[in-house]
């Protein structure tokens, strides 16, 4: 017989788990909840432990998710619109969630937008057979759900900014040649010269990147296409070293061995940092504040972030970075000082 965890057991397990597991982002949890609703509707009466195993979470986490689903629903949010979730018996029953679990239907505008996007991918990528197959499926589905095929869409992808670099990169990648890049590093406000063996060209969050083995850094790097100031194909084999591996790009930023570990304390007004930036762990206070540990390649990113947040965040460690940020803050305040040690304030209107 499956036993539902008691409230006291859940609270104790949450405390223990929070101290040892990586913090889950809101985006990751939302994805699981969206997958959970249709699955639970199709598996009525599934034991709590089986449902937890299906989604790779503990029973306590599953109960937390069900508690959240219980207060979710369609606009109106009355009793008739909220999801009905029951699990006290040790078995999960979900009702009144058919609208949320129903598959999305494309409008004509949505179908046209997706078709245009896939055609853009097909024309920009090397080895675009996956995009073409997906495009064919979309056209077939659009003909059924929209009522008429979307057809071919004429696209002009050359906006005059990235097209030239993309053409050079595609040519080098197709022929297996190394490329020479002049690349702008925004965090240091400087241009650098690099020789790169291309591993792939990809689009993340509407931004084009080229990933490859950088001989300057002696490691795999990700380069934004709009920061490539010049690109040329070298008459050199562009096969990356055998040890070079593509990064897991669920997040664009992937910590490296030499990256700096930074600890920040932020008020509840700046708690969004934990969801927005990949991190190594978060400790949350009862007032909504948090202490978050980050891995950063360039400390300048942290300095700008903390200064932009004003007094809502501060650097705890390392000490030298904390001192540097404090020094920049004092320098910024001094710019508003009229010499008497008191920052200038606006006077009364005259």
Q: Could you walk me through the main structural features you see in this protein, from its secondary elements to its overall organization?
A:
By secondary structure, the chain is α+β, with helices and mostly antiparallel strands. The chain folds into four domains: 95 residues, Arc Repressor Mutant, subunit A, CATH 1.10.10; 38 residues, no CATH class; 75 residues, Calcium binding protein CcbP, beta-barrel domain (SH3 type barrels, Roll), CATH 2.30.30; 75 residues, Alpha-Beta Plaits (2-Layer Sandwich). The protein contains eleven helices and twelve strands. The strands form three sheets. A five-stranded antiparallel beta sheet has the order 7-6-5-4-8, covered by helices on one side. Strands 10-11-9-12 form a four-stranded antiparallel beta sheet, covered by helices on one side. A three-stranded antiparallel beta sheet has the order 1-3-2. A hairpin with a 4-residue loop joins β4 and β5. α3 crosses α4. The chain is globular, with a radius of gyration of 26 Å. It starts with 6 loop residues before the first helix and ends in a 16-residue tail after the last helix.
